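Hey, I'm writing a tutorial for new members on how sequence and structure tokens pair up, and I'd like a real worked example in the thread rather than a made-up one. If someone can provide the structure for the chain below, I'll link this post from the tutorial.
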Amino acid sequence: MAKEELKIGEISKPRFEFRSFGQDFTKAAARMARLSMPVPEKVRERYSDEIYILSRTNDINNTKIRDGKMDIKTFVQNVDGLEQWNPLMKGEFPMKASVLEGEVFPAFQVSMPRLTKDEYTYDEFMEMVYSHPDLAAVKVHKQRFGYMVNNTICEFGAVLINGAKVYTINSESTEIEDIKKTVSEIGLEGVENINYLQAIKRVIGMINKPLAN
């Protein structure tokens, strides 16, 4: 069976991903840029501001809000050290109480706040997050540079997590062997695979563990 040809910014079947976070990926990022095939102008450099909702009791559902829209992905499996995530829900504000009760707070795996309205604005939802003892809202600013190496979608980025600057580098594809080849060629073999959920928890102190470097 022929491999699926990945295109940056287009939806494919669920991908596997290697990603890491740390203070210095200079050499690996340079190799990634050198090995990359040409990529569309719109993904060469991108900026975004997002809010990640972190839960002390959940490490399998990744929730972020960007431009007033909520996106929750759920962990599916780990194969050869690579993680696979699938979309769990997408929604926007104002959000119905039934969605918060049936999808959002169950994804956080925390106690449910008392809901007294039929729907909630973004500000009202965030107030519930701020007041919940097991939740944290974290501001994340991303500057991302997109590449394509060995038919894997790659990225090097500078990330501000509540103002703390770290760097991230990744390779993702539907083909595990292509990711492994890319990780090897850019010099990241043996580097810990850390997803956004884990990285942010480490930076804010919710998890007592360092980043990759």
